[in-house]
Specification:
Oligomer: single chain
Number of strands: 13
Number of helices: 19
Strand content: 15-25%
Length: 473
């Protein structure tokens, strides 16, 4: 039997929730106090740990670290627990990691720039859709050239190198011709240093390649960048520095700009990395740091070489709407092939859509991502839109509906009958009535589970109502 067919949860209705199902992704939705974390979430998390999974846990609330400490203690995984946070001794220089991987290939500069842009855009308002492509391209071009200048001149690159290049880039012709600016500008001095190094390389294809890279960098900073309108340049700078200033100060500076003691690949070896910068405490700092590590982790999982006995890994994100980025959908569309089990917990669809950009864009983002999460747990919820989404997912069926009528007057009459109508299999209002655990419900939680693929054995349907006892997990 393949490791993918190993059961994790034995459903009462047959056909278990397997590792294969987990690799296809899980979405857990429920209102405040619905039991999504203490019910479905706790059940799945403990199954992952019990089966030896490694994983990455992002945190939104302060108590999540203690929760995962208790999970690891219960399943004898305390030695595998790694905590990244303000008071930990763990660090991850992501730029050095990205630039020194043995499998780095030829697209390293754009890969690093794309990592930075992904995190920057995750915390920015996109503005008008008509301008989006322009600002994206301008930011990407700035990052690519700053990163490539670092790679040409530094043995080990750090974020502060990129920051200082962009900070000291020329903004006018007079500045470019100023001896004082040339002396103080990190951007200018590094280009001069690169030119000197390249001139000392013997004529070869390598020398030609290095010279071509430097020419492109000089052409950008002394041409395209210099001649941008002041307003355009200041907007692009603001996009970068709003993000960059957070990474130039602790705790992010120490975590991401010093050395490396932990990498995403450690989860493949069984480590459980808890990123303890809760968003509701650290706000943008916590979000940026965690989205960055999340994105680098997702890309690392996509590079793994899978064998029959390869260990599954998981990405665990409670309050998932806080940690979205543009490449989540791309990752999830292939995660199954790399045994990366995504678990997203969130309260409702509007919450998610709002943080994904709002309007139609946010709604489509949710639908695209949710469509790639194979198993969905719907807990009690008072949000109409979420309940309608769940009801539509389960579908409609023909039901007999009774009717009656009465006419009053001199000759009053009464009639009754029935007709078939297409109605929701589970009415949206029913989701608000599910048990939410706690003493009032004898700790029983009700959850509707919808799964893709194989239906539940005893019903032949892809959905079912299950009960979970908080005290028996």
């Amino acid at each position: 039997m393949s490791i993918l067919d190993t059961p994790l949860i034995e459903w009462q209705l047959g056909y278990p929730f397997t590792i294969r199902d987990a690799c296809e992704g899980t979405l857990i939705m429920g209102g405040l106090g619905s039991g999504k974390t203490s019910g479905s979430g706790s059940l799945i998390a403990k199954k992952f740990l019990n089966k030896g999974f490694g994983g990455l846990v992002l945190t939104a609330k302060e108590d999540e670290l203690d929760l995962w400490k208790s999970y690891c203690k219960k399943y004898d995984r305390e030695d595998d627990l790694v905590i990244i946070g303000q008071d930990s001794d763990q660090c991850f220089n992501f730029l050095d990691y990205e630039s020194s991987r043995p499998d780095k290939g030829t697209g390293i500069t754009h890969n690093i720039a794309d990592t930075l842009k992904t995190v920057i855009k995750a915390g920015a308002n996109d503005g008008q859709e008509s301008d989006k492509a322009f600002w994206d391209a301008s930011l990407q071009q700035l990052l690519v050239n700053a990163v490539d200048l670092c790679l040409l001149t530094q043995k080990k690159i750090k974020f502060e190198h990129i920051y200082k290049i962009i900070q000291s880039a020329p903004k006018s012709k007079s500045e470019l011709n100023s001896a004082e600016w040339r002396k103080s500008s990190q951007c200018f001095r590094l280009m001069e240093h690169a030119a000197k190094k390249i001139s000392q390389v013997s004529k070869s294809k390598k020398a030609d390649s290095l010279a071509r890279r430097l020419y492109i960098i000089e052409d950008f900073f002394y041409g395209n960048w210099l001649y941008l309108s002041e307003k355009t340049r200041s907007i692009v700078e603001q996009m970068f520095f709003g993000f960059g200033d957070r990474f130039m100060r602790d705790p992010l500076y120490t975590l991401f700009n010093t050395g490396t003691s932990i990498t995403p690949e450690d989860t493949i070896k069984g480590k459980i990395i808890v990123f303890n910068l809760p968003y509701l405490i650290y706000e943008n700092i916590g979000r940026d740091g965690q989205i960055l590590f999340k994105y680098v982790w997702q890309r690392a999982m996509q590079r793994r070489q899978i064998r029959d006995n390869s260990r599954p890994t998981f990405l665990w994100v409670d309050e998932a709407h806080y940690f979205l980025h543009d490449h989540d959908i791309d990752h999830q569309s292939t995660a199954r092939s790399y045994r990366a089990c995504t678990v997203y917990l969130t309260q409702n669809l509007p919450n998610y859509s709002l943080h994904a950009g709002g309007g139609e864009r946010g709604a489509y983002h949710f639908k695209a991502l949710a469509g790639n999460l194979g198993t969905k747990f719907f807990h009690a919820n008072s949000d109409v839109e979420t309940n309608e989404y769940a009801a539509n997912l389960i579908g409609k069926e023909l039901k007999w509906v009774g009717s009656e009528g009465q006419s009053m007057g001199e000759n009053s009459s009464f009639s009754e009958g029935s007709s078939q109508n297409m109605l929701y299999t589970i009415e949206p209002s029913k989701f608000a009535q599910q048990k939410t655990g706690g003493p009032i419900n004898n700790f029983w939680i009700e959850v509707v589970v919808h799964r893709q693929g194989i239906p539940f054995e005893s019903t032949g349907k892809n959905y079912a109502l299950f009960t979970i006892n908080q005290q028996q997990i």
